[in-house]
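Appendix B. Chain record.
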Amino acid sequence: MKQLLIAIIFSTFYLNLFAQNIHRTACNGNLVRLDSMLINTSIDVVDHRGRSLLHWAVACKQKEVFDFLVKKGIRINGTDNQEKTPLHVAVQFNNVEYFDYLIGLQSKNNWQSIYGASLIELAVLNGNKGLTEKLINSGIDVNIKNKRGSTALEISQRTGAEDISEFLLSKGADERLVRKFKTKGKYMGQEAPKTKPEMFAPNFISTEEQEFGSVFNREGTEFYFGVDVGERNEIRFSKMEENQWTKPVTVLSDERYSYNDPFLSNDENRLYFISTRALDGKGEIKDVDIWYVERIDGGWSEPINAGSNINTGEDEYYISFTNDGTMYFASNGHSRKDTTRTDHDIYYARIVDNEFQEPVLLDSAVNTTDYEADVFVAPDESYLIFCSTRDGGLGRGDLYVSFKNSDGNWTKAVNMGKGINTKHYEYCPFVTKDGKYLFYTSNQDIYWVSTEIINEIREKSR
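Structure tokens predicted for this chain:
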């Protein structure tokens, strides 16, 4: 996945992307310096994602820092911007030791009712039966529901965690509370959104897992999307059969390599995606490249690398195509006039005789000195939408749009505004082939909205 996270491994984000020095000091375990810094700083100082020094101490497994902060009176259950406490961090990373520390520090027993559902959700998603048992045995109701209305049993059955399902049933989990979702008709039977974004297919596509990078085929009968499954990503697929959508199944996955950001070629005989796969499919994880598989009888071919004209020794992200087959994508590996640049920019590559040509860097109307990636180009090249982390955004990463003017040049990209962008990360835009709906990812779920919002921005920018 991407600069997230993308996927988003909590500890990697903490170690590499954070700018507030005091939290990095806690992560590094430098007690002397931390103590000095706290002379003029509150013990409950948080970073830009609301995470406290205790969140960091748990994530970075710094026991001396942990003990020091507790002795200093830090809030044990301080929540970050996603309402996660340090206890959630311990569960997220399957860290039983810190889980036990934090449970022992709870002054009241109401933590079970306040945080129980979200803690069990994390344990089940991680496939951690041991922590699930600990949570249930600590007094959390086995049938407690999370904010989506899901019980732990429903989540375990949805994710195929059979051993956890069996344990929950042995503890009295009620199968009658497990909901069955039947999705029928176009766009999975969802009520079409207007200019206010709506979560797409809640509890069927957008679930407690982290979903992103989605695409429908032209007929609207196939749907591909990426899912974060821990330290890697996989691509899942659902199709409409006799007006009924099938339960999503995994079509591209590997125990080591990540596969995500699916996008169909114009003839829909190729499924493009990005992956950390080694060129021979056997070696160590490498940088992110663009790959594809071809339709064959009964499925897909083995992955094929898109070639050295597109891929470099650095990262290439996301894929979309114009009507003539030109590929738009992002890279931080292709040569640029500014040799000091290390972040991602957006490129396009024409195709001649079925071979992609040397990529061309888009100009400063689109690219800046910040991160630009996840580009969707309209098939007629009338506009493009992409993600950027540039200054002036509304959150961790925003969606921007640029329109092609009558001279054939891209207009200066503008933020798509509060109707789309939030304090979270918005990325992976895709517009359906009928031109009616914009799909994108926000806060680890897939959303959709009427493309009227693009037309409104176009009119305002004229």
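Further analysis of this model is presented in Appendix C.
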